[in-house]
Amino acid sequence: MEGLARVWSVALHGVDGVPVEIEAAIGGGIPGVHLVGLPDAALNEAKDRVRSAIVHSGRTWPNQRIVLALSPATLRKTGSRFDLALACAVLTAAELVPPDRLRGTVLVGELALDGRLRPVRGVLPCLLAARDAGMARAIVPRATLAEAALVDGLASYGAETLTEVLDWATGAHRLERVPTVDGPGPAVAPPELADVLGQDDARRALEIAAAGGHHLLMVGPPGTGKTMLAQRIVGLLPELGRAEALQLAAIRSVAGRLADGAPLSTLAPFVAPHHSASAAALLGGGSGVARPGAVSLAHRGVLFLDECPHWSASVLDSLRTPLEEGEVRLSRADGTVHYPARFQLVLAANPCPCAPPVDRECTCRPDIRRRYMARLSGPLLDRVDLRVAMEPVTGFSVTGGRGEPTAAVRDRVLEARAAAGERWSQHGWRCNAEVPGTELRTRFPLAPGVLEPLEKRMRAGELSARGADRALRVAWTLSDLAGAERPGRGEVDAALYFRERSAA
């Protein structure tokens, strides 16, 4: 007996899915299974998993030569998500399963030896690619149905065993299908900004950072509210659109970080890795195809690095490219992947290693203090738009009551974001921090008198050209918060104040 069958699955390259045609040819030689198409070790092991799953599902394994080809042949195939498609291809080629229902159907899932269907990472980007390729249906492990339901325009079915899928293909069983999820999951209230005592400068800097998408450094003694303020910036940021939320969910799916039950979230992410994290954990890494790291999990949100002088200087400097380009490129033996990484960086630091309480003096020598803060290199600090020195809180009534609530500050931030979005929309930029400095200076020039403070510091060697551009972006954000059409001298002076106001 000789037979040929074709089914479909999806390979992942970063967060991009690539439809893969799986062909099974039976007959014409010594019995055995041959897998071609650049499979990795996990995929090569699929031959044994698939055979055992078919036998334990009550089907007969063809005792003939079986060739399984995965196309495009030049694309490296990784992982175990092809198991279900391989099993269906073999049984269809052996004429044990009719091919009709499998046409236009994408099959994704790992098989256990007894035929159970196990969940895999990256189901969401796989199904998005399948929909864009014109597929009509998808069958995934039932545990990932909530994730699959986020993809509209594609009928997604869930199964728990290979037997259920085979019975569905013959018309003897109906698979569970869930409707498409149009809206986000339950909203989670962010921390309240009014809980932070005092710190007027830092609260103002936080508002500016949220309104313009700027990076922020806070320096101050322990207990002054640096972490509290960083956690509260998320409540000031606008909600993610559906396309952005899907992109973030796809990154989380590939990384295995997607929440169960309600995987679509419109709240900007807040990622705070520990200072012992490696460069691979921060940027992404791993054997084979590199997985996304913290910078990608913080896409369209906030990456918070607490105690930043304790981080390795080389790890901190590795952030410079993602900060400028909004993506991270990771090269491995299996190829180069691109992950989106457009985030706001928030740094927090103590002024010295001993970090004394409010009522005690620092015991660190000057050279130790310099070496401590030198972990933050000049090129990295040059990319930080706002710097603020945190003052000790000397009493619970320091402000005479609670500060402004999150809702009031957020309203101003959203108004400023709307003004910036309307101004830059035709150029493709969303906020002031994304606008190239050359565009600000040429298309939207300011009067010479307004720019005088910037030019004075540049001539004195106190400010680089990049630093001047970043100060100019902050001035535009201050102008948007004030409801003005263009920045004036006051906004430029304020931008320089926040750029120079730190103990770093």
From TrEMBL:
Classification via InterPro entries: AAA+_ATPase, CHLI-like, Mg_chelat-rel, Mg_chelat-rel_C, Mg_chelatse_chII-like_cat_dom, P-loop_NTPase, Ribosomal_Su5_D2-typ_SF, Ribsml_uS5_D2-typ_fold_subgr
Pfam families: ChlI, Mg_chelatase, Mg_chelatase_C
Superkingdom of source: Bacteria
Occurrences of domain AAA+ ATPase (ranges): 212-394
Record GO terms (molecular function): ATP binding
Family note: Belongs to the Mg-chelatase subunits D/I family. ComM subfamily.
Name this protein carries in UniProt: Magnesium chelatase family protein
Organism of derivation: Pseudonocardia ammonioxydans
